[in-house]
Amino acid sequence: MTLSNEQLIQIRRHLHSIPELAMHEIKTHAYVLQVIQSFSQTNLEIKELPELPTALLVLVKGSNPQRNIGYRCDMDALPVTETHESSYKSTNPGVMHACGHDIHTTVALGILNYFSENQPKDNLVFFFQPAEESESGGKVAYDLGAFSGDFHIDEFYGLHDNPLLKTGVIGCRMGTLFAGTTEVNITIHGKSGHAAYPHLANDAIVIAANFINQVQTVISRSIDPIKCGVITFGKLDAGVIRNVIAGEARIEGTIRGLTQDMIEFIRQRISEIAEGLEKSFICQIDVDYNQGGYYPVENNPKLTKRFINYMKENKNVAFEETEPKMTGEDFGYLINKIPGTMFWLGVESKGALHSADFLPNEAAIQKGIEAMVGFLGYRMNLEEE
Ligand SMILES: CC(=O)N[C@@H](CCC[C@H](N)C(=O)O)C(=O)O
């Protein structure tokens, strides 16, 4: 049975009501599996990964396969408390689909549903991925050998929703779509003490303040202004009470650049600043970096040219050429290994990605499905040049 627009919206709303953090997508995985099991199973094969139990792969067997085409969606949510009131509001306190992965998953289910009813020519491999926001679920799956044998992938596609594009618009570009990122954790070891005796302590909060201010000069003063980079510290923990000097501070952040060279340059400058502060404040500063799978999202030239041309020429699709953005994605790792294209789907929300008032327009779901079903049909009928 082909899912109606109403059913797709119900699926999205159910997913929205059960958001789960990276690597904990247990209810989401069970629900997605239940939806897939309601589809015609004639040409479907489901693969689970015991070492990555919230992931799911589905093969749709083609009628005359020349290749395996992959389609990936991510399923995890964020530690954000939703502000919008609705009948499908998050039932998991403090967790919200604030990045639209509920939309991504529903679009993937819609495309899969279509091809379960209309056998494709090529094999299609759907990857329902856990842990995009952290912990690199895509990389973990790849490194576990998920995309091997019948589930190998020759070319890979995936989307991200975009609140700044009009609903249903497909956005893409040749080259780099998203930045590469690196998570950075800094622990400052000072010495705690009485608020009245600062000379007998070593205030980790003062060191953290200096560290944060100095690091901001990396972007404003160390990098070529024509190129770009981002350093955001989203979390700072220090101290226990107003009249005890903090002995330790912990800062968590993310570094972004459109090239791997830029990311490495920023890392080096942060380490140099930490070393300088260790000397000037006579303290110890540990800096840990973790890039995981968040490589720059570099679209494959041949596949992306074909994708963009199709979207531009299709009268039912509104296409926009987009600028690179500093968002990260571990799809960057997957398309570093397997040629692929990532694109945006406009969802026109006043609230930004990662914000408590993110409110995507659900009408984008059907548009995304139609654009991708159309593209895959076209791509499968092309003779390979
Ligand atoms: C699309 C999006 O918002 N992706 C996340 C990816 C997280 C990357 C990693 N955990 C980091 O923080 O560096 C993003 O924040 O851009």
TrEMBL record:
One of its GO terms (molecular function) is N-acetyldiaminopimelate deacetylase activity. Pathway: Amino-acid biosynthesis; L-lysine biosynthesis via DAP pathway; LL-2,6-diaminopimelate from (S)-tetrahydrodipicolinate (acetylase route): step 3/3. Belongs to the peptidase M20A family. N-acetyldiaminopimelate deacetylase subfamily. Residues 180-275 form the Peptidase M20 dimerisation domain. This is N-acetyldiaminopimelate deacetylase. The Mn(2+) ion enhances activity. Keywords: Amino-acid biosynthesis, Diaminopimelate biosynthesis, Hydrolase, Lysine biosynthesis, Manganese, Metal-binding. Gene3D superfamilies: 3.30.70.360, Zn peptidases. It comes from Companilactobacillus heilongjiangensis. The active site is at D74, E133 (proton acceptor). Its cofactor is Mn(2+).
